[in-house]
Amino acid sequence: MSSNLKVLQVIPKLGYGGAETGCYDVAHYLSENNCQSFIVTSGGELVKFINKEKVKLIKLPVQSKNPLLILFNALALIFIILYYNISIIHARSRAPAWSCYIATKITRRKFVTTFHGTYNFNSKIKKFYNSVMVRSNLIIAGSNFIFSHIKDNYSEFFNINKKLLVIFRGINVDYFDPTTKTEAEEKELLESWNIKENKKIILLPGRLTSWKGQELFIEAVNLANIQLGYEAFYAVILGSEQGRDLYKKKLVRLSEQYRMTNQVRFINHCKDMALAYKVSNIVISSSIEPESFGRVAVEAQSMQKIIIASNIGGSKETIIDEKTGYLFTPINPKSLSEKILKALNLDDNTLKTIGIEGRKNIVNKFNVEKMCFSTYSEYKKIVN
Questions:
Q1: In the predicted model, is pLDDT for residue 1 greater than 50?
Q2: CATH number of 178-365: 3.30.450.40, 1.25.40.10, 1.20.120.140, 3.40.50.2000?
Q3: Does CATH place domain 2-170+367-383 in 3.90.550.10?
Q4: pLDDT per residue over 60-86, tens digit each?
Q5: Which residues are paired to 265 by β-bridges?
Q6: What pLDDT, on the 0 to 100 scale, is given for residue 244?
Q7: Which of 127, 215, 338, 345 allows an S-S link to 121, with CB 3.0 to 4.6 Å?
Q8: What's the count of helices (H) and strands (E) in the chain, helices before strands?
Q9: In the chain, what's the furthest Cα-to-Cα distance?
Q10: Is 201 helix (H, G, I), strand (E, B) or coil?
Q11: CA 326 to each of CA 1, 141, 173, 217, 293: distance values in angstroms, whole numbers, following the listed order
Q12: What are the extents of the domains in the chain?
């Protein structure tokens, strides 16, 4: 049966986010396992990396929430499904999921959805819009946190024919491998960050948006400075503002207010995130709202770095507290500061042990091969 399996994944854009890389990884895994693999998307940075000989790429305006375009996309998907005799349609976002839902109802094909986040709602209309993600034959949650969110908020849309399960998001542990980076690469990156002194580096990756907790991080660094003295370490805030200029200015002003101008580095972009982790000593995820999965925590552990993260959402599932990293009380700069000081005081042998345990944790539970195999296995179950 697997040799006849034809899977069409639909995603708004193929960028570098978790949903997008998951779609990309599954698509290539399927083609390497004797299946025919298709992606419908509007475009994105990852498109140029798709192996066109293995994965059929079709462009449609599936990023649009316009009802007329959603209907147009549904008609186009019906044609694609019938023309290529698609077995399974897998939607990874709400707007295209509505098009997929219509198309699968008409063509009577299997419909799969992945909840990559917790879609908030403040009205019945928004909840109804979100509910398309649980109208499929198979609903995949990216973490236990998302699984609970679905059961708590969307159970009225379930029926006995639906299957809900957790498939943890996976990362490429071969890419996030500390042994692949050279000293020359590390030196070049540190120079580009204007870091010249041999001080420890604390890294906070993530786009500049208030819920990612950059303000909380600066507050915590200031509290740590009171204990250690100013400029005892570097604090690197790595992420683009994506049009949030006022928020970035607020962060810069806050660091100036605490006399941290020489200590804090605002870095807009890093093309090699594995290298960014490698040059850092401690990695922070200070989100003030729950992370659906917590990719930073997973990537940091894979790079054998100690991770300090908010004790909410997906991070609680990916970090083994006190063994592969530390969890701190959310929205509490004092708690984060205490964990930073604790990590800074660890000796090299302890840090090495934490790093080894962290990588072992990720390789065993959150690697991309496991995610792809689990997804493929579930595909086969619903068509048999």
A1: no
A2: 3.40.50.2000
A3: no
A4: 999 999 999 999 999 999 999 999 999
A5: 236
A6: 79
A7: 127
A8: 14, 13
A9: 68
A10: strand
A11: 46, 25, 21, 15, 16
A12: 2-170+367-383, 178-365
